[in-house]
Specification:
Blueprint (H helix, E strand, L loop, with lengths): L3 H8 L2 H11 L1 H4 L11 E2 H8 L3 H13 L3 E6 L2 E6 L1 H14 L1
Length: about 100
C-alpha cells in the first residue's frame, strides 16, 4: 500500500525530483561514481552532485525514503540508494486512474 499524500509531498520539492531523475539513470548521472549493481548509488555521490550541505540533502533523502520512493541499503559504513520502481509504478498508475 502506498501513501499518495506522502509521495505528493515528497515530489513537491525540485531537488527530490532531481534525485529521482538522477537515480533513474545512475551511470549517466554519476559517471565517476562507483555504482554497485543491486545496491544503488552511494549517498555521498548524491550529496556531491547536489552541491548542497550534507544535512540538507540527507533530509531530502529521508523524505523520499519515508514516502517509499527510495530504498536505502546500509553496507558497512556506506549507505546506498536506489529507486523503488514498484512504488513509483503503483503511484503513476493510481494517478492515471484517478486524474
Amino acid at each position: 500500500m502506498i501513501d499518495t499524500n506522502l509521495i505528493h509531498k515528497a515530489l513537491a520539492n525540485p531537488l527530490r525530483r532531481d534525485i529521482l531523475a538522477w537515480l533513474r539513470t545512475p551511470a549517466e548521472a554519476f559517471p565517476t561514481c562507483d555504482i554497485h549493481l543491486g545496491q544503488g548509488v552511494p549517498a555521498h555521490a548524491i550529496h556531491a552532485r547536489s552541491a548542497l550541505s550534507q544535512s540538507t540533502v540527507s533530509v531530502h533523502i529521508s523524505v523520499l525514503v519515508a514516502a517509499g520512493l527510495l530504498v536505502s541499503m546500509q553496507v558497512g559504513q556506506w549507505t546506498f540508494l536506489s529507486r523503488n520502481e514498484e512504488v513509483i509504478r503503483a503511484f503513476v498508475e493510481q494517478i492515471r486512474q484517478h486524474l
